[in-house]
Amino acid sequence: METLLKEMEEYAAVRHVPIINEQERSAFCRIVQDFCPHRILEIGTAIGYSALLLARCAADDACVTTLERSEERAEQAQKYIARSPYASCIKIHVGDAGKLLQQENIRAGAPYDLVFIDAAKGQYPDYFAKALPLLADHAVLLADNVLFRGYVRSEQKIPHRYRTMVNRLREYLCLAAETPGCHTDILENGDGLAVTRWDRTAEASTTERGRNHAEKA
Known about the structure:
This protein has 9 helices and 7 strands; from the N terminus they run H-H-E-H-E-H-E-H-H-E-H-E-H-E-E-H. The protein has 217 residues and is an alpha/beta fold.
């Protein structure tokens, strides 16, 4: 397995394929191991590197559903996954993640114990909104590259080509921080990994308090 992962790292470096940052990998794996999820949804397969990390670090019976827009990358990911010990527990779906998240075959896999977002940065708020109803009552949602080269928390002028992306990432972090039931920390090693712990019972309690307050008012 280590030899395969090393091969994938070299492939990604040569072809400039984004995979989880080396500085974040140990923290990423530790979180997955600690949470020990059984059902996992990944948004953004790329060449399958993080899907393999998820499968290796999760519960022994874990199933990984992963979404990838590029047919070429999905095909390459499938080749790598087929050579791993986890070929039978990782399923790749090809298409636009925003649309796939609303399809019955993806929703049928819910509730998911863990969701990992590492796809189009400008779509993170949409992914968050569509993934939240698919989470188990107690789940974790991970999102990579949320600080995007330091621009998201910077007051410096953002290059024009990055402005929409940075604004969407800022919106995502607001959603992850302010949505009832969510508690979010950001690991700043690498490009920023947002770790959102979700508690549906806390969301229900917050909603009920808000309703009671409105009635009294």
